[in-house]
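Lecture 7 notes: from sequence to structure.

We start with a single chain of 666 residues. Read the sequence below before looking at the structure.
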Amino acid sequence: MFDKILIANRGEIACRVIKTAKQMGIKTVAVFSDADRNALHVQLADEAVNIGPPPANQSYIDIEKVTSAVKKTNAQAVHPGYGFLSENAKFAKSLSDIGVTFIGPPQNAIESMGDKITSKKIAQEAGVNTVPGYIGVIKDEDEALSISEKIGYPVMIKASAGGGGKGMRIAWNDTEVKEGFQSSKNEAASSFGDDRIFIEKFVTQPRHIEIQVLADTKGNCIYLGERECSIQRRNQKVVEEAPSSFLDENTRREMGEQACNLAKAVGYSSAGTVEFIVDKDKNFYFLEMNTRLQVEHPVTELITGIDLVEQMILVATGKPLSITQKDIKLTGWAIESRLYAEDPYRNFLPSIGRLTRYRPPAEIKDKHSIVRNDTGVYEGGEISMYYDPMIAKLCTWAPDRAKAIEQMRIALDRFEVEGIGHNLPFLSAVMDHKKFISGKITTAFIAEEYSEGFNGVDLSDDKIKDLAACAAAMNRVAEIRRTKISGRMDNHERRVGDDWVVQVAGKVFLVNVIADTAGANVIFEDETSIRVSGDWLPGKKLANMTAGDKNLVIKINKVTGGFRMRTRGADLKVLVRSPRQAELSKHMQEKLPPDTSKMLLCPMPGLIVKIDVEIGQEVQEGQPLCTVEAMKMENILRAERKGVVAKINSSVGDSLAVDDIILEFG
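Now the structure, written as tokens:
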């Protein structure tokens, strides 16, 4: 067994590996860039080594710097996590050259499967179903156009060394091939140091289902069931679950056996994932093999009880697998929601900054339920513009799918994040969506169901009424506290009335609040009554409330005249006023935002990498104006309407904040 391992990664996956290593009695070494000096993985490791500036290509994917840290700390093995150098054969060889074990597959397997072009050829030879496409490196834009036309639109442009949605574009016509080809090459070069691109047919309305395999150096290979990864945005997974509600036992076995055949064909050892796309008739096609630990590995661990990181370490020491295919039992259901630093109200654009509040739900583990949160951040820490925007992976397990979804709903409501934009409201919306609940989903789910973007959840009338009742009762608690302020003038005692006007989601409720020591009865104008009780005091950010027979978890912020209340994906301003205040408020003027219609504002913190227009140039609707790079992704900003460029406020290489002015129009 190893005495010390180095984790060549950062964030939540570095923390995840450290956790298992400690349980196994293995010392750990963290590496970090200047931007990650105070990161959580640095704090958790036994040792830490600085390996350079913030950009990944100058630190985390600099092989020489990482191997230097290995030598410096005398680490016996390296776990690469996912991303960065995890599928880099040169890195594995560099470790072998200095007598250090790579906790992952053999170099030849990484080369064969990590290169998507080669992997498809091997898959075909191994009898694995493959997607039609061009198996070869594409030289330039003209060749990309020619190949796309032969295959037939739509096509998928993909980085050969890619993963995690980087360097990937769907093109529906020649114009999108031209734009997507160069952007894919740029992203691939930036993320992986390899700009090779290939093209294959894009199968419409598919499911993305992957098989987890585990192999040792003795020729044994097993599969640990599947993961459903169809909830994706921009080719990046958002919600995963295991098992898939779509597969039957026969299809699961066929996919698993093909995955193992592919692994054996390349002499694979360690944990790996074979990804498939599956059509509506359960025909499945090989997509790629990830020769590493997947981001979504926790859901497999939850339904099998197998620690994949532990198995990777044991295999790396040369031990044979202690489990066989017959030992694998899929128990219950697990769901993973990826918490991203992306603002869903701004078309999921990246968000950076300080986490002024970060309070995950309490972790639970018993025979009826599990709540697990894999994270690499902490309250007060920074979300950097240099790396992937994922903050945490919230996972739930329950005996069946419906209970696992309900556990996730509650856990998301209890997850408190402030200081940055994040996708918690969107994740809550997915959990309540009829299509997701039914299990009838495809990779087009987000594009189809949120084609106009995400603008929050519209709650039912009953839920709005419950929130109004809670707000009225909570407001009364706050008002009573205000009456107890010391130092009041004599004969100026403040009285708390029973009648209130609650305004929420465009509705106005006239209520009467009758309180007692255990709660309050909130009586509405239509004479219906809701009994409200719960755990909340002024200043608390999370309220656990009961409204009638319903349990509500509500995030609370005080605002002038009421509360900001967030629950189940809804973000509502709830005003609670006395009848006189409500009457006078009708005469208040609404402050309008400034006119920015003639400006192109930076929608996210990022770097200007290209400006496509000049002063005086006339632009048309949809025309590219500039490209902003943020969190390893290139974003093309386009003209919303016809106009003339009057002023260019930024230059290539400028680092901009949200709403900085890039261009102005005449």
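The mean pLDDT is 93. Keep this in mind for problem set 3.
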